[in-house]
Amino acid sequence: MTTNAAWVLVVEDDTFVNKAYQTKFAFEEIPAQFALDGESALAMLREAGSKLPAVVLLDLMMPGMNGFEVLEQMKGSPKWKNIPVIILSNLGQEEDKERGMKLGAVEYLVKADTKIADIVAKVNTYRNA
Question: Its domain of life (predicted)?
């Protein structure tokens, strides 16, 4: 990150969805970094040092480490536990939502039911907090 502005970490394995977020965040002038899987996301957090993201958008269904595992690791880390995590998944079952919230997510959004403009609004709520 070359900027001091509050940035967003997007953890999403779907390249099409990532491209949509990249385009929208660039348009809205929201600095963002993108990880295609859980392992990459945790590596980015480690590399971020003291310039941690203001918020993390986290998909659940990913190859390798899934989003629940990433969330558990984040909330188990003294350095990362206070970063707000918004789950953005197509898993819409009540059990999945409950599990995500119990693990420490601040919001659980179902991709199919959520417009990208609403995602940007949520991101900005946490970036500007």
Answer: Bacteria
